[in-house]
Specification:
- The protein has 9 helices and 9 strands.
- It has about 260 residues and is of the alpha/beta class.
- The protein has 2 domains: about 210 residues, P-loop containing nucleotide triphosphate hydrolases (Rossmann fold, 3-Layer(aba) Sandwich), CATH 3.40.50.300; about 45 residues.
- The strands form 2 sheets. The chain has a 6-stranded mixed sheet, sandwiched between helices.
- The longest helix has 18 residues.
- About 40% of the residues are buried.
- The structure holds adenosine-5'-triphosphate (ATP).
- The site of adenosine-5'-triphosphate has 12 residues, from strand 2 and helix 1.
- Pfam families: ABC_tran (PF00005).
- One of its GO terms (molecular function) is ATP hydrolysis activity.
- This is Putative ABC transporter ATP-binding protein YfiL.
- Keywords: ATP-binding, Nucleotide-binding, Transport.
Length: about 260
């Protein structure tokens, strides 16, 4: 059997006395779209920083594409594309100019870089905007350019940290559709970190519920509620679902008829 693309084992990160990530164990297979779902402050970004070799674990191990991000951070960055909440671009350059710049930084020859930049702009639906300076892009356009920027080096894995923040609903739909097709058509492994239950539900094969540094449950969407609410279901005789997860773990309350459609 193929070994997992991302393998996290008993991973802990402490900042002084505060534990941001607490004994996390998780495997993500090749081509899988995995959602790391948790409220603000759960430890999602800290986990991503450890996967990228940008901060060191306090204890435990991480492997990405068979590499150790602590001792091989450059090799990891070569194979993993990371899209943060807000990507920094040169605002006075156009989309293609920004992408070609990234390609050069990744040692891609100029001729290939240009061809790849235009192909990716088409892939993310920005081919109609090639002469526009990025400073004039909308938030959704910047994120789509961010995705192209991540893809220019042909990564095996892409890690997206709250990528839809500030994008309008139709932009979000397009962006999520793109992520799914990338995974399906190109076999890219995707780690999608978000606090939006419904977005994660739309695109992810498997989801981990991450709260206060701990992974409470993981699995496909339908099995999550069962894992988290088995006892309550037995006591109350009703079926629990995703909305219940949202209210209990993200809002700190329980779902009732007054709030049942606002997640
Ligand atoms: N450098 C740091 N020093 C001290 N505490 C930190 C540091 N970085 C993060 N934390 C704390 O660790 C916890 C987890 O933060 P993290 O950013 O990983 O959460 P998150 O799930 O990504 O949330 P958000 O979506 O709000 O960024 C938070 O309580 C945060 O305040």
């Amino acid at each position: 059997m193929q070994s997992p693309t991302i393998e996290i084992c008993n991973l802990t990160k402490k900042y002084g006395d505060f534990t941001a990530v607490d004994n996390l164990t998780l495997s993500i297979g090749k081509g899988e779209v995995f959602g790391l779902l948790g409220p603000n402050g759960a430890g999602k970004s800290t986990t991503i920083l450890m996967l990228m070799g940008l901060t060191e674990p306090t204890s435990g191990t991480v492997q990405v594409c068979g590499l150790n991000p602590v001792s091989q951070p450059i090799e990891v960055k070569r194979r993993v594309g990371y899209l943060p909440e807000d990507v920094g671009f040169y605002d006075d350059l156009t989309g293609p100019e920004n992408l070609i710049y990234t390609a050069r930084l990744n040692a891609i020859p100029d001729k290939d870089a240009e061809e790849r930049a235009f192909r990716l702009l088409e892939r993310v639906g920005l081919d109609g905007e090639i002469n526009k300076k990025v400073g004039k892009y909308s938030r959704g356009m910047r994120q789509r350019l961010g995705l192209a920027d991540v893809l220019i080096k042909n990564p095996e894995v892409i890690i997206l940290d709250e990528p839809t923040l500030g994008i309008d609903p139709s932009g979000i739909r397009d962006f999520l559709g793109l992520i799914v097709s990338l995974s399906r058509e190109e076999g890219i492994t995707v780690l999608f970190s978000s606090h939006h239950l419904h977005q994660v539900q739309q695109v992810c094969d498997r989801v981990g519920i991450f709260v206060k540094g701990r992974l409470l449950a993981q699995g496909d969407i339908t099995s999550l509620a069962r894992q988290l609410f088995a006892e309550s279901e037995e006591q109350n005789g009703r079926e629990y679902g995703l909305e219940d997860i949202y209210y209990r773990y993200f809002e700190g309350g329980e779902r009732n008829e007054d709030n049942s459609d606002s997640a």
